[in-house]
Amino acid sequence: MRRRDFIALIGGASVGGSFASSAQQPAKHRIGYLSSRSRESDAPYLGSFRQGLKEAGYIEDQSVQIEYLWAQGQYDKLPALAADLVRLPVEVLVAVGGEPSAVAAKTATSTIPIVFMIGADPIKAGLVESDNHPGGNATGINILTDSLGAKRLSLLHDIVAGGTKIGFLVNPRFATADVQLRTLQETARALGLSVVGLSAATDAEIETAFKDAAQQRLPALIIGADPFFDTRFESLVALAARYAVPTMYQFHDFVEAGGLMSYGIDLSDLYRQAGIYSGRILKGEKPADLPVLQPTKFEFVLNLRTAKTLNLQISPSLISIADKVIE
Prior knowledge:
The chain is α/β, with parallel strands linked by helices and 327 residues long. The chain folds into two domains: 3-144 and 266-289, Rossmann fold (3-Layer(aba) Sandwich); 146-264 and 298-326, 3-Layer(aba) Sandwich (Rossmann fold). The chain is built from 13 helices and 13 strands. The chain has helices at 3-10, 39-55, 78-87, 99-108, 149-160, 177-190, 203-215, 227-230, 233-242, 252-256, 267-282, 304-309, 316-320, and strands spanning 16-18, 29-35, 64-70, 92-96, 114-118, 138-142, 165-170, 194-199, 221-223, 247-249, 261-264, 299-303, 324-326. Helix 2 crosses helix 11 (267-282), helix 3 (78-87) crosses helix 4 (99-108) and helix 5 packs across helix 6 (177-190). Residues 1-14 have low confidence and may be disordered.
């Protein structure tokens, strides 16, 4: 299938992807890479994915060809994208960017091996039978980010300084938005806080949410764990600065772009692990026999330059526990 024909089929400008040119010499193996995020938000981690493949014995454009497709945070595009990768066909389907891409891949095929990266329980999502023995055609990595809202709130509590409310931005179209909100509300009650839910599923709604947070004088805001927000990380950071709202994010990318703080995982090693798993499957191992992996290291990143801009006094105790401080 030629690239222009494929783009016409799936709607073109709304989705980023790169099927190989027909002029290229076909590689021995072919992997499909399906992401609910964007090319830009995945870019820092693709090198790690390729490194994992290399460690497993495969080099892109030499021994393996990778077909990349991005949904740009538009989850309704994913089923069609997954189906097109299946039809190519591919030997392994890598699904990154949370439940939407993983579920779309699982729905599209029950035979092609799937390596997923999601933030919630893969058993509840219907992807595997158990973490240790997946039992089907899918395995991968649970990055646990959906369950870290309580820790993010606990860290942000130091910033609230006597305030009784905290904002939480969620995308109502994301599968685990309600679960994340309930978990945060339970933690907030234990800290004597209440959570104000703010919803956004479009760029315009994101800006409205920040405007509402400023008008309600919310002392701080947490961005929900959602690939849609990952694809808008620069916009989110810019809005937090414009409306002077201290904001907590899930990945350090936001903080390095000027955000205040983040708590989560460094995705680099987990993308590498996804590459290793993909290579092992190409060599003949079965997803059913490869246990679902989980991260063991989490990082708290703090931007003191942004704190100064917001006129925030960050306590020495909070600074002391940060894994990385941007000064």
